[in-house]
Task: structure prediction
Amino acid sequence: MAEPASLTPGKKIEDFRRQMRAARDGGQPWFALGDLFAEALATAADADLVDLRTAASEAARLSPGVLRRYVVLLDRLRAIAEANGLARDEFVSRVFNAAEVAARIYDLDPEQGMTALRDLKAGAVTLAELRRRLAELPPPVELQPVDPEPKEEQPTTKSVARGLAVIRSRELKAGFMLKALAPWAEGRWGAGSSLRRRPPTRHYTSHQGFEIRGTGAADRPRAGLELFILDGPEESELRYFERAFPSYLVLATFYPAFFFAFSPSTPDASVARAVELPGLFGAGSVGVVRVTAAGTVETLVEPDGPPVPDRIGRFDVLGS
Result:
């Protein structure tokens, strides 16, 4: 006799819990746990995601954020290998922290990154050495130091000068991201699609907010997009994003699709959390992309449904 449907989700989660616990107790490496978690996330119903993440965390004795970082890094290492015509798991190695650093080196300098990944796989390099290599690389264009203003335009106090430098630096980073996102938008939504500043409202600024629109003046937005340049201390930036996330979920319901776009300098923990949250909240219309230091756009979460509730075409209710 078939098991009642109402028991199936719980049974699956308990089976998954046993698998994760067995992998942990058996000393399986991070990527084995990451594969188990990724497979479970991909096949779970939306209603089971919270229980699934709790089960994974308890069984592996790791936070959900760490497990999500495992999944994100696995996807990144496999994408690098496949982009270079290599076997899918060519760069998957046993030391998680070192693999994260090697992938970061690749993002800044693909040639040196390939060397780092191969050295790590061969066991020929330590985490300390990889961190040294990473520290010696020049920052990407978006992170280059800001040239000082001409002397006659310098502010009169150091605090104001620092504030202006931060503003200019963020403007440069946003410009770098928009340069990468423009061809991405056109490739995704068709010729003539472009990024336009989102109209300001009483509830949302337009400073880092954009819409993807076509060429027609009356054309409705095809998607919304918010830039996130979170390059401060990792813990504080993560807290900021988690606090801001619910308000952007509301904004997302006014667009057919909505994307969080992260800068190359955003800490991995914030990006991993952003990858996790849309599924946790059942936000099927929300996607996540990251602009790399090479100026390309990686899609980390693909929208897979309409906004709920659907407020498309009602942007005016937000007020101007």
